[in-house]
Design brief:
Blueprint: H1 28-35, E1 50-51, E2 55-64, E3 67-74, E4 79-85, H2 88-91, H3 94-108, E5 118-124, E6 127-133, E7 137-139, H4 140-144, H5 151-170, E8 173-174, E9 183-186, E10 191-193, E11 200-201, H6 222-225, H7 232-248, H8 258-267, H9 273-276, H10 282-291, H11 303-314, H12 342-349, H13 357-362, E12 372-376, E13 380-381, H14 389-404, E14 411-413, H15 416-419, H16 429-436, E15 440-449, E16 452-461, E17 466-476, H17 480-494, H18 501-508, H19 515-530, H20 533-549, H21 554-569, H22 575-592, H23 597-611, H24 614-627, H25 632-644, H26 648-661, H27 666-678, H28 682-695, H29 700-713, H30 716-731, H31 734-747, H32 749-766, H33 771-780, H34 784-797, H35 817-825
Parallel strand pairs: 12-14, 12-15, 13-15
Antiparallel strand pairs: 1-2, 2-3, 3-4, 4-6, 5-6, 7-9, 8-11, 9-10, 15-16, 16-17
Helix pairs in contact: 5-7, 5-11, 7-10, 10-11, 12-17, 14-17, 14-19, 19-20, 19-21, 20-21, 21-22, 21-23, 22-23, 23-24, 23-25, 24-25, 25-26, 25-27, 26-27, 27-28, 27-29, 28-29, 29-30, 30-31, 30-32, 31-32, 32-33, 33-34
């Protein structure tokens, strides 16, 4: 199975790419069944039942991922035991049961004070069971559910667990399901590792074909989440999660869905221990950080190493192996500060400084390659003041904007949304290179002290991770923006780009920006990209805050325009209310800054989806792209305009470029899926939609486009699921989902779509809904007349989704005179049924 991101060829039973960790295109049902600990249907054993001729059931203790557990009495040896019965999933497969029992026997051979003792492995009525020591006490999960543990207690428990796991590892047994629920603590404080049910004896195959990725999701190591072969370092990661949980009372990697938890494990860093547990010694944060290193090579290599550092901290000393995490990845070989000059970084990028880096790249007299792909990673705020984040974030954004404007034929700069995912992470450079598709990365950091700022930066070549250039600067804060423009100009020279006089003039300008207004604008944009009702509303607060800080801030007005356009597009506010407000804000933005791509982009959005002025919208989109060729927002929505004008080939080219510039932007992935639907490339659209959901599981646009693509492919069950998620997510009306689900089992797909359309009609009369959404559902129900009625209603109300009536979803209506009349009135191409 080929990975859709890096194209690595995986085995067909893989769920995550072995190379880059991308989720492979499987249904949610399959994903859930593989990443969750196996769920069971508990067998029923009444009190007094006899098992194995000697175990008398006392009561049920509970059920877990690998079976149901009973408290029982060993009537022969007169001791209390815990009986765990294997789940039916394993019991039904003789080969699976044999392997499980073999591994359980191996685990039973373990004899250690910190491992729950296994007395017997047997069978009862064709169901396997394990008899183990009954532990009086609480699991760590139960303990931390009340409050986090004290530092001393947490460290002591972790030390004991390392001792038990070291014993298992020495026998070739990896636990693979270390979690707080599987570690019991007796009243005397003795830790006992339970449930070696997922344990894998080194060298043996996994338990079942269906269990390629086992273990509880939140505690999985990155390699385990990807379905790779694991070793003892996976248990080290899981214990690191447990240690973090003991100290903070929360899990380090969280999410609303399994996919989002896995994404967090693979790509994000947990909240710093020092912020949630300031009383913990600094060395303990370093230990947790090393245990949770995403690359196994950077973790502790053995439980002994882990334990030695824990004991050192417990004794009041610094850890022996875990070192303070550098503020960023690498610089100078000693990892120091670096930020604004990140531009300067690039400047010397290919060799402006003595000796000429350009010569190192290309050789003397050589010309640069046609296309250079660069990622400017989030600059690091080295101060302890979170209020200074705007400085590093603002520099990152402005550098991307400055360099993205220059010669797109030669230089391609990854957009902010994608690179900001690497903020405060230690993602390896080679992985960043693969995920973003770049050859070079620029890293930097800044530290402000009074009126001065210290900036350091380095340029790294991805393929061999060599440092090509680095420097450090001290500068007055008042001149920092002028410095950044100067550096961008030097970068252009280093790249042998021949700048136009207008480009030189723009770089020579040192714009003054209110830092607080800029920070608020960036936060507002971040929320707007998510395009959920709550996030759209949150964006308004930040855009208005930006205006409060700077009443003449053009980008803030552009943000306000996007806010109203977003509410209109998602059916949250009627066009009669939203459109005028969006237009006033967009026109004011252009008036304040005609040279900003963002202002023309905002006006293009209003002209296309509020005014239905296709010619005016295209002029504004082109102007935005002309001002900043590296601005993916303008390209992705220009591609939609081109689709609506039936210029599909041009649309695909613009969409591809947008995704190339911002590959980790879930909104743009979903938007590109729409372009592919127009191009009748439904399988490709599904891949893009699923990739959008991998990046943001709740993305409503992705669910909407998957609904269309599934419907057009005849995948009715999948279409129904996506339609329900989309409608519930946008309109927050549970009746919509109930209507779809209620009709489907009895009357089938078309009836479900009809029921959904009727429920959305009721919602329309109760508050508001886009008439086109109702028309979509009637189309899927094959009720053409009702669909046309709602499309005509959409035209009457100026529904902003009406421009998409050229989508293949409406092909069955193209021969209808009423539909052709709509196309004519909207000034769209008149086309026959395709």
């Amino acid at each position: 199975m080929k990975c859709t991101k890096c194209h690595f060829e995986n085995t067909e039973d893989s769920f995550f790419c072995k190379k880059c960790g991308t989720k492979l295109p499987l249904s949610n049902e399959v994903l859930y069944s593989q990443t969750k600990t196996i769920q069971i249907s508990p067998a029923i054993l009444n009190e007094g039942s006899l098992v194995g001729g000697k175990y008398k059931i006392i009561s049920e203790i509970g059920s877990g991922g690998m079976g149901i557990v009973y408290k029982a009495e060993d009537t022969k040896l007169r001791r209390t035991v815990a009986l765990k019965f294997l789940p039916p999933e394993l019991s039904r497969h003789p080969e699976a049961r044999e392997r499980f029992m073999r591994e359980a026997h191996a685990a039973a051979a373990l004899d250690h004070p910190h491992i729950g003792t296994i007395f017997e492995v047997g069978e009862h009525e064709d169901t396997g069971f394990i008899a183990m020591a009954y532990i009086e006490g609480q699991s760590i999960r139960e303990k931390v559910s009340k409050q986090p543990l004290g530092v001393e207690e947490a460290v002591d428990i972790a030390i004991q667990v390392t001792e038990g796991l070291e014993e298992a590892h020495s026998k070739g047994i990896i636990h693979r399901d270390v979690k707080s629920a599987n570690i019991m603590v007796t009243e005397k404080g003795q830790a006992k590792i339970m449930d070696f049910g997922l344990a894998k004896v080194a060298g043996q195959s996994l338990i079942t074909k269906e269990a390629k990725t086992m273990g509880t999701v939140a505690y999985m190591s990155p390699e385990q989440a990807r379905g790779e072969v694991v070793d003892g370092r996976s248990d080290i990661w899981s214990l690191g999660v447990v240690l973090y949980e003991m100290l903070t009372g929360t899990l380090p990697f969280k999410g609303d869905h399994d996919q989002s938890v896995i994404y967090s494990i693979l790509h994000e860093e947990p909240k710093a221990l020092s912020k949630t547990r300031p009383d913990a010694p600094s060395g303990l944060e370093q230990i947790v950080g090393k245990a949770l290193a995403k690359n196994p090579a950077n973790r502790y290599q053995t439980m002994r190493e882990f334990r030695e550092d824990l004991k050192a901290v417990a004794a009041g000393f610094k850890p022996l192996r875990a070192k303070p995490r550098p503020a960023k990845r690498r610089i100078f070989g000693i990892r120091v500060a670096y930020i604004y000059a990140g531009l300067a970084v690039v400047a010397v990028l290919f060799g402006l400084n003595v000796g000429g880096v350009r010569n190192q790249f290309f050789g003397r007299g050589a010309t640069p390659p046609r296309s250079i792909k660069l990622a400017i990673l989030p600059f690091v705020n080295l101060t302890s003041d979170p209020e200074q984040e705007y400085l590093s974030d603002g520099i990152t954004q402005e550098m991307i904007a400055q360099l993205g404007r220059l010669h797109p034929q030669n230089l391609s700069v990854i957009a902010r949304t994608s690179v900001m995912r690497y903020k405060k992470t230690n993602t390896p450079i080679d992985q960043i290179g693969r995920e973003l598709g770049v050859e070079y990365v620029l890293e930097g950091s800044a530290q402000r002290e009074g009126s001065r700022v210290r900036i350091s930066a380095e340029l790294i070549q991805v393929k061999d991770q060599t440092q090509l250039w680095a420097d450090t600067y001290d500068h007055e804060m008042s001149g920092i923006l002028a410095l950044q423009n100067d550096v961008a100009q030097k970068v252009a020279g280093a790249l042998a780009l021949k700048l136009l006089p207008s480009e030189k003039a723009n770089l020579a300008k040192a714009k003054t920006i209110n830092p607080e207004a800029y920070e608020a604008y960036l936060k507002g944009l971040q929320h707007w990209y998510k395009l959920t009702p709550a996030d759209i509303d949150a964006s308004q607060q930040y855009f208005e805050l930006a205006l409060k800080k700077d009443p003449n801030y053009a980008l803030a007005y552009a943000g306000i325009a996007l806010f109203w356009a977003g509410r209109q597009q998602m059916g949250l506010t009627p066009p009669s209310e939203a459109a005028p407000k969006a237009k006033v804000a967009a026109l004011r933005a252009v008036e304040l800054d005609e040279a900003a791509a963002e202002t023309h982009y905002a006006l293009a959005i209003v002209k296309a989806w509020s005014d239905w002025d296709w010619t005016g919208a295209e002029l504004e989109f082109k102007r935005a792209i002309e001002l900043n060729p590296g601005f993916p927002d303008a390209r992705i929505y220009y591609s939609h305009l081109l689709c609506n004008l039936q210029r599909t080939e041009e649309a695909v080219a613009q969409g591809e470029k947008a995704v190339e510039l911002d590959p980790l932007n879930s909104l743009f992935r979903g938007a590109f899926a729409a372009v592919l639907v127009y191009a009748h490339r439904y399988d490709d659209a599904i891949v893009q939609g699923r990739e959008a959901l991998r990046l943001a599981p709740d993305d409503p646009l992705a669910h909407n486009l998957l609904f269309f693509a599934y419907h057009l492919k005849g995948m009715n069950k999948e279409a129904l699921v996506s339609a329900k998620i989309y409608l519930n997510g946008i309109y927050a009306d549970s009746d919509l989902g109930k209507a779809l689900e209620g009709a489907y089992p009895q009357d089938g797909y078309r009836s479900a779509m009809r029921a959904g359309a009727e429920a959305l009609t009721a919602h329309f009369h109760k508050s508001y809904a886009n008439p086109s959404d109702i028309a979509f559902l009637y189309i899927c129900a094959d009720e053409k007349d009702r669909a046309l009625e709602w499309l005509e209603k959409g035209y009457e109300l100026h529904d902003p989704v009406m421009p998409y009536i050229g989508m293949p979803l409406f092909n069955s209506l193209r021969s209808e005179p009423r539909f052709q009349d709509l196309l004519r009135k909207m000034n769209f191409p008149l086309t026959e049924e395709k």
